[in-house]
Amino acid sequence: MDAFTADLLQRIEITRSDLHRAREAGDLFTMDVEQSELDDLRRLAQEHGVQVA
Fold it and tell me: CA 26 to CA 50: how far, in whole Å?
């Protein structure tokens, strides 16, 4: 796995975790921010052929 792929997958996992914490806290603003970031990261992964679980 190259550095780009590893970094992208790590960023996705961190963002998922942050989104989960925001949901648990009921923080709607942070939920929106993290969901947008996750959507962007997933799009980036798809554009580069990176498989996301």
Answer: 31
- 53 inside domain: no
Question: Contact, 2 vs 49, CB < 8 A?
Answer: no
pLDDT per residue as tens digits for the range 19-32: 999 999 999 999 99
Interatomic CA distance for residues 4 and 47, integer angstroms? 13
Alpha helices per DSSP H over the chain: 3-25, 28-47
- In this structure, the number of other CB atoms found within 10 A of the CB of residue 34 comes to 21
Amino acid at residue number 49: G
Q: Model's pTM, two decimal places?
A: 0.92
**How many domains would you assign to the chain?**
1
